[in-house]
Amino acid sequence: MKPNQSSQRDSVYAQPLNKVSDFAFDTKVADVFPDMISRSIPGYATIIDTIGRLATRYVKPNSRVYDLGCSLGAASLSIKQHCRAEGVEIYAVDNSEAMVERCQNYVNAYRGDIPVQVQCADIAELSMQPCSMVVLNFTLQFVPQEQRQAIIQKIYDQLMPGGLLVISEKVKHQDPVADSLLIDLYHEFKRNNGYSDLEISQKRAALENVMRLNTPEEHIQRLTQAGFTSVQEWFRCFNFTSWIAIKNDEAKT
């Protein structure tokens, strides 16, 4: 059974603010994060479930799995639920102390044979070991642009041949007309989930300086530059996309 990830309803931006501070994964956000993420990312439950199902295909016995930017550990717990390979260890890493603390609580409450090591660290500085699967679930968008290629390269270098990277991101599009339409549809999605125009506006302002988006083409170029030859978009809804990138079986480690 999954641990109870119920939380307070997200009302972080419900009241008018004199000054909208930059968004941070602090205690205030961590307390409402399950509600925030479920009401803010279309298809999030499908993405999390599919990550677990992909683990059954790609996680090898006696190997490591990395969940980088793990937040409350939803992807880690999905892998833990689905994966049946023996000798597997999951490393859940996030640079937010508030998120890591709550992630550890969820991990402790979850039954299962696969151990999950929760670590507070900057993924750009993380020393990785050989692994069979890596998850970057809405993480890279919060990493400085100049660090992103090096992180993808580090992941590629440490993946075993046949290993899998799952990367999910909010994206922007080169066509301004299409981009504007998708943003409008996304805001309508949030309104339908109970967010007011004030909440949408204030959160967008809070994210402006901390969430820097790439186009799908830029993401794919980054992956292929690192060495991935099999890159496939498997999920898209509005301006949210997820890819799988597989390291060729014949690649050298």
From TrEMBL:
GO BP field: tRNA wobble uridine modification
Sequence positions that bind S-adenosyl-L-methionine: Y44, G69, C70, S71, D94, N95, D122, I123, N137, R204
Pfam families: Methyltransf_25 (PF13649)
Keywords of the record: S-adenosyl-L-methionine, Transferase
Protein name, per record: Carboxy-S-adenosyl-L-methionine synthase
PANTHER family tied to this protein: CARBOXY-S-ADENOSYL-L-METHIONINE SYNTHASE, TRANS-ACONITATE 2-METHYLTRANSFERASE-RELATED
Matches recorded under InterPro entries: CmoA (IPR005271), Methyltransf_25 (IPR041698), SAM-dependent_MTases_sf (IPR029063)
Gene3D superfamilies assigned to the protein according to its UniProt record, in alphabetical order: Vaccinia Virus protein VP39
Upper classification of the organism: Bacteria, Pseudomonadati, Pseudomonadota, Gammaproteobacteria, Alteromonadales
Function: Catalyzes the conversion of S-adenosyl-L-methionine (SAM) to carboxy-S-adenosyl-L-methionine (Cx-SAM).
Methyltransferase domain boundaries: 65-163
EC numbers on record: 2.1.3.-
GO MF terms held by the record: carboxyl- or carbamoyltransferase activity; S-adenosyl-L-methionine binding
Similarity remark: Belongs to the class I-like SAM-binding methyltransferase superfamily. Cx-SAM synthase family.
Keyword Transferase listed: yes
Xref: CDD domains: AdoMet_MTases
Oligomer status and interactors: Homodimer.
Reaction equation(s) it catalyzes: prephenate + S-adenosyl-L-methionine = carboxy-S-adenosyl-L-methionine + 3-phenylpyruvate + H2O
